[in-house]
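Q: Okay, next protein. This is Triosephosphate isomerase from Azotobacter beijerinckii. I've checked the sequence twice, so it should be correct. Can you predict the 3D structure?
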Amino acid sequence: MSGKRVIGNWKMNGSLDANRRLLQELLPPLAALTGVEVAVCPPFPYLAQVGALLEGSGVALGAQNLHAAEKGAFTGEVGAGMLKELGCRYVLVGHSERRSLFGESDGLVAEKFEAALAAGLLPVLCVGETLAQRRDGSTEAVIAAQVRAVLQRVGIAGIATGVVAYEPVWAIGTGETASPEQAQAVHRQIRALLGEADRELAAATPLLYGGSVKADNAAALFAQPDIDGGLIGGASLEAASFAAICQAAAR
Ligand SMILES: O=C[C@H](O)COP(=O)(O)O
């Protein structure tokens, strides 16, 4: 039992028809896998449809974002309780597209992580450096600040209840994956940082890698000691590719 997790982030893609076809093709091969927990995160409007299609499959449902408040006058936003009620197990928090395109700060991301925990969801904290930050040598500082903001708010027990996903921004949707060694180095750093608070809980925190994970590079990434699975974007929209990635995690 490898205990790995693979989460598909569909981003702003899909339709009622495309979702049905994707899951029809994806669920049968996944049914045979053991030792891997799989989830998919469709856009908000499709959560109910996808939740119903996943019923009995063992594949979990996740959302891509949430508001930090429980409810109120926040037009266009969605609260953690609503996601929970629709059957979500996971919710992504602080994806780099949220940070860069929608101005989400480390502080706001921490508030969202806390709100998700309070509702009984498993928040997936996304962290990662830009290409410029990697080039100027600030990867470690950037990741540390992103992780510490959440650690300070919810403590190590809070983080360990959820998941952390390292997604170098330069590897997202670009086809350029971090090498297994590059990814492992950052994962080891995250584990060590969490370990300053509690070594056991740090060891138990799932650390996923995301950024151009494909069927042909997944196994090498998942073989790294501190990589506990993947957060998959583009390849999660192709049933055969996503199934192969899940298969690599199940080994
Ligand atoms: O949430 C997923 C990541 O942004 C990775 O996306 P990608 O697999 O298309 O590079």
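A: Here is a summary of the prediction. The mean pLDDT is 96. The pocket of glyceraldehyde-3-phosphate is lined by residues 9, 95, 167, 172-173, 210-213, 231-235 (CB under 6 Å).
Q: Noted. On to the next one.
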